[in-house]
Automatic annotation (TrEMBL):
PANTHER family in the cross-refs: GNAT FAMILY, PUTATIVE (AFU_ORTHOLOGUE AFUA_3G00765)-RELATED-RELATED (PTHR43792), N-ACETYLTRANSFERASE DOMAIN-CONTAINING PROTEIN (PTHR43792:SF1)
InterPro entries noted in UniProt: Acyl_CoA_acyltransferase, GNAT_dom, N-acetyltransferase
Classification via CDD domains: NAT_SF
Family matches, as PROSITE patterns: GNAT (PS51186)
Source lineage: Bacteria, Bacillati, Actinomycetota, Actinomycetes, Micrococcales
Domain called N-acetyltransferase: residue spans: 7-161
Protein name per UniProt: GNAT family protein
C-alpha cells in the first residue's frame, strides 16, 4: 500500500473555479456522479454559486466545499451538504492523482473537519454500487453500508465511543 500523501484541506474559494470545472467536465471523474455524464455549464455555475454563497450551516442544503492540497497543488475536492439525515460528504479526485491514497486522506480529513463546521452530525456518503473503490475507501474509514435507494448505496460513519 502506498504511503498516504500529506494533504491538507482548505475552504473552497472563487480562485478554485477552474479546478472544479475541470473535474466536473472530465467524464472519468463524473462517471459515478449524478447521471454519470460531464456537467453542463449551467449545472457547474449553479453548484459554484451555492458553494461560494456560504449559507448558515444550520440550514438544510447548506454546503461547504474544501480543496485538498498537497505541496500547494490542488489534488481533490471534498464537498459537504447538510440534509435531513445529517451531513452528506463526497470527494472528487482528478485522474492524475488516482491510486495514490488521495481519497483516503481526504475522507480522513473530512471525518474530522466536517463536524468542526457543522457540529456533531451524522456523516453520510452516497456511492454508486459499481464504484467499488469508493465504497472500499469509506468502509476502511469506519463507514458502513446502511441502505440502497435510488440506485445508490448510502454509507454512514459509525461512531466508536
Amino acid at each position: 500500500m502506498p504511503v498516504q500523501p500529506s494533504i491538507n484541506l482548505r475552504p473552497f474559494q472563487e480562485m478554485d473555479t477552474a479546478f472544479f470545472t475541470g473535474l466536473a467536465t472530465d467524464e472519468r471523474v463524473t462517471r459515478f456522479v449524478g447521471d454519470g455524464r460531464p456537467w453542463a455549464p449551467q449545472a457547474i455555475q449553479d453548484r459554484l454559486r451555492a458553494a461560494l454563497q456560504q449559507e448558515p450551516v444550520e440550514q438544510s442544503g447548506a454546503v461547504r466545499w474544501f480543496i485538498a492540497v498537497e505541496a500547494e497543488e490542488a489534488v481533490g475536492l471534498v464537498v459537504s451538504t447538510r440534509c435531513d439525515e445529517g451531513v452528506e460528504v463526497g470527494y472528487w479526485v482528478p485522474p492524475e492523482h488516482w491510486g495514490r491514497g488521495v481519497a483516503r486522506a481526504m475522507v480522513d480529513l473530512a471525518v474530522s473537519t466536517v463536524p468542526e463546521i457543522y457540529g456533531q452530525v451524522r456523516l453520510i456518503a452516497h456511492v454508486d454500487p459499481a464504484h467499488a473503490v469508493s465504497a472500499r475507501v469509506l468502509t476502511r474509514r469506519g463507514f458502513e453500508l446502511e441502505a440502497s435507494q435510488g440506485g445508490l448505496d448510502r454509507y454512514v460513519l459509525v461512531q466508536t465511543q
